[in-house]
Amino acid sequence: xxxxxxxxxxxxxxxxxxxxxxxxxxxxxxxxxxxxxxxxxxxxxxxxxxxxxxxxxxxxxxxxxxxxxxxxxxxxxxxxxxxxxxxxxxxxxxxxxxxxxxxxxxxxxxxxxxxxxxxxxxxxxxxxxxxxxxxxxxxxxxxxxxxxxxxxxxxxxxxxxxxxxxxxxxxxxxxxxxxxxxxxxxxxxxxxxxxxxxxxxxxxxxxxxxxxxxxxxxxxxxxxxxxxxxxxxxxxxxxxxxxxxxxxxxxxxxxxxxxxxxxxxxxx
Length: 268
Prior knowledge:
single chain; 7-stranded antiparallel sheet
């Protein structure tokens, strides 16, 4: 017997394939193999050419002898790299690998991206709950008079993030009214970063995220929880993801979107 997929399922399947392709790119989130925090002392790190140090004035210094490159140009001597807080870092090329120099508040680190990472080579897809119409809900967005900078924790002990919240989204789910603090989406729209009753059970304990389109002129917005995704820290130990705001915890079990992924890097 042939089972016909609904338009919702077909659209989700195409979106999910694209999501998995993006995850598994050669230097994507699944390629991380190390995270080294820097201080003011120039040091060498296992498997990485050169020496590295945080300067204390907004930069990282790399001293190398031509065995590292930036934009295809070998580094011979000392160069100054200036990553932006909270943004993707400066990439240094080491053969097929990339060393990403990142800044998180006033801390600096090296993140190694290796296409041969087991988290990438063993990747067989991002497990997800079955798609269901009941997880597509309408909500309303109420913007703050002015954006608010929040302070939230991170999956790295002692690290903090300072995301900017732009308002709240209210919606009904599981027979109850809910409210979540909303952040700007990376490419427009809004983003909801939350925990729910599945967190730490069938889904990653550090929370998940769902992207929303721009609200209409009356503040109405549609939330498709089927498209809820894990943050990078669900797939690797070498991410620095923020945790959701304390108020963004739903009492309902959102059995939609991505589930806890396999972690081949943690297996004996």
